[in-house]
Amino acid sequence: MSATKRIRAIDYPRSGVVEVLDQRLLPLRERTITCRCGEEVAIAIEEMALRGAPLIGVAAAMGIAVEMDQAKWDSAQQRHACFTTICSRMLQTRPTAVNLAWAVERMRQAYGKLQEKSDVEMLAGLQTEARQIMEEDWQMNLAMGEHGASLIKDGDVVLTHCNTGSLATGGHGTALGVIRSAVQGGKKIRVLVDETRPYLQGARLTSWELQQEGIEATLIADSMAAHCMQKGMVNMVIVGADRIAMNGDVANKIGTYNLSILAKEHQIPFYVAAPSSTIDPNCIAGSDIPIEERAEEEITHYHGHRVAPKGIPVYNPAFDVTPAANIAAIITERQILLPPLGSALAKLMQEIRECHSI
């Protein structure tokens, strides 16, 4: 697969329709869900038909646009109330990924500029903004991949966690995008894929993506990572992020913190790849990041079949926080940020603000 092609995890092919590749069924079956209103997109996000921080942001933007496509109103006040309601609904779907709030705010700003326009012009403007958010994410991922590929040497073995490819983004991917770019640049590398319990995003999705384009990969259970590092089988770890605090702490899929500790113990570089939209300027430290807790059935059941005894209490946080001290670098679309990460992030965010004010 070339850098100009991508697996489309979501599409907005025409007015009133958002199409979602149902990731719950992969890799055994490919099915597309057709969403015709914002509520159906919100349910697709909540029920994990689509996932991945950047993709959740893209989906939220498209969900807002498709809701305004089909909603009815009799006045400007009703139109505004409809827009406000669907924005609030999208923000309720997944609390940890900051890309969601970032995308909703983009749509709010777009709507603010369109409020005096006709319904037709307003709808066209929101559709354009939603599609632009997806296109920008793809372009950011390509730039991120180019920066991150410079950290990978020919012959390296890279351990990754969860799914961070085209299925989690607008295309190409974050951590998996870095791996793709290295391979497309001619480097021969191998990927160790963590299964990523309890939802198995690595086993089901990352393995599938890597097979689609012939990148050499080996699937391992999460509990095997320490053994592989001890045996000298891992040269680096690259993961994505759902939110980055201003001190450099990173929230990502549960199990990421474990890997950072193991990597530090074995003196293996631990890298985070994420677009600048994942940086939360209002979040001082990782302790400020809300951690989503998901349904107990994700642990007690597998494909609808119970695998744990009835009545056993379950704790199922979807994310954990990796401290900045365990991170060798954060790879963004603009540059690679090196420690001290707090200072590097502050400088980057200042540059972004200055760029937007021009």
Give a quick summary of the entry.
This protein has 358 residues and is of the alpha/beta class.
Overview of this protein structure:
The chain is α/β, with parallel strands linked by helices. The chain has eleven helices and 15 strands. The protein has helices spanning 38-46, 53-70, 76-91, 98-114, 119-149, 175-184, 201-212, 225-230, 256-265, 297-300, 341-357; strands spanning 10-14, 17-21, 32-35, 157-160, 190-194, 217-220, 236-239, 243-244, 250-253, 270-273, 301-302, 305-306, 319-322, 329-331, 336-337. It has a seven-stranded mixed beta sheet. A hairpin with a 5-residue loop joins strand 8 and strand 9. It starts with 9 loop residues before the first strand and ends with a helix.
List the topology elements.
Blueprint: E1 10-14, E2 17-21, E3 32-35, H1 38-46, H2 53-70, H3 76-91, H4 98-114, H5 119-149, E4 157-160, H6 175-184, E5 190-194, H7 201-212, E6 217-220, H8 225-230, E7 236-239, E8 243-244, E9 250-253, H9 256-265, E10 270-273, H10 297-300, E11 301-302, E12 305-306, E13 319-322, E14 329-331, E15 336-337, H11 341-357
Parallel strand pairs: 4-5, 4-7, 5-6, 7-10, 10-14
Antiparallel strand pairs: 1-2, 2-3, 8-9, 9-13, 11-12, 14-15
Helix pairs in contact: 1-2, 2-3, 2-4, 2-5, 3-4, 4-5, 5-6
